[in-house]
Amino acid sequence: MLKFRFYSLISQQSIMMNRKTQRPLQLIQGDQIMLLLALNSMELMQEKRSIPLEREEIVLATGPLCIAPQHDPVISYKGIVYNIEDDASDEKAECSISIIKPADRELAQQLLKNPVQTEQDIHLLERYLQLFLQSNSEKGCAMESARRSSEQIDKRISFVYRYMLLHYEKPLTLHDLSKLVGCHPVYLSSVYTKVYQVSPMQHLQQIRMRKASVFVRSTNMKMKEIAHSIGYVSSSQFGSIYKRYYGVSPNRDRVAAVMNTSWIEPY
């Protein structure tokens, strides 16, 4: 088990970045570990691997760790950084753990919200991280080892994700994506889901809905135009998916944006 000491608390950080010209922002060094709460979508990078993070996703990750914009030029996050004090290099293997259990998420959010003012506060942060590692690290590092076990699989899955980011407006199917990387659709879906914890088609819908929200709330495009621009064949299909995803129709959400209010509560 890793030994560590509290280093710093980042209550909230928002950084404007240019995806095309600016290098990814390094968060921590190789001898550090970070509990990170993404306040908007971003790319988390460990060495040569890139992990997409959605808004409100929480991860525990070892360094070296960098972040880069995914869609919005502004990156917003909260975090707690610890220094790793072990010399055992085998225990410093690259690892990232998604904090998904409701109880773990609630605790992590509480830790990220409270100020650090006393030695007792620091002791509590270190103790809670120890509990996180005890309950999650074996599963998380096993998953990481599986991801790195095959260079070919990693490249295929990463390619599919990047392709969807660049071509979300196309009427893509699982069969289309599997043909791109030369594997069976069932195999692609299974491996992709293990890596990203979401199926390729669900991930594609998330990408489209994030883009749709921008079009709905920030432009005067007609709903039919928005639907076609993100890969849906009709405005009714688009409207149904948008309401299911955000809990409000795109027309009502546009009105809310004009009035400077917010109806959106994504699941």
Structural descriptors:
267 residues, alpha+beta, 4-stranded antiparallel β-sheet, 9 helices, 22% strand, disordered C terminus
Task: Compile the SSE list and pairings.
Layout: E1 4-16, E2 25-28, E3 32-38, E4 42-46, E5 49-53, E6 58-62, E7 65-69, E8 74-84, E9 96-98, H1 102-113, H2 119-148, H3 151-166, H4 174-181, H5 185-196, H6 200-218, H7 223-229, H8 235-246, H9 250-258
Antiparallel strand pairs: 1-8, 2-7, 3-6, 3-8, 4-5, 4-7, 6-9
Helix pairs in contact: 3-4, 3-6, 6-9, 7-8
What does this structure look like?
The protein has 267 residues and is of the alpha+beta class. Helix content is 47%, strand content 22%. It has helices at residues 102-113, 119-148, 151-166, 174-181, 185-196, 200-218, 223-229, 235-246, 250-258; strands spanning 4-16, 25-28, 32-38, 42-46, 49-53, 58-62, 65-69, 74-84, 96-98. The strands form 2 sheets. Strands 1-8-3-6-9 form a 5-stranded antiparallel beta sheet, with helices on one face. Strands 2-7-4-5 form a 4-stranded antiparallel beta sheet, with no helix packed on it. A hairpin with a 2-residue loop joins strand 4 (42-46) and strand 5. Helix 3 (151-166) packs parallel to helix 6, helix 6 packs across helix 9 and helix 7 (223-229) packs across helix 8 (235-246). The radius of gyration is 20 Å and the shape is globular. The two termini are 34 Å apart.
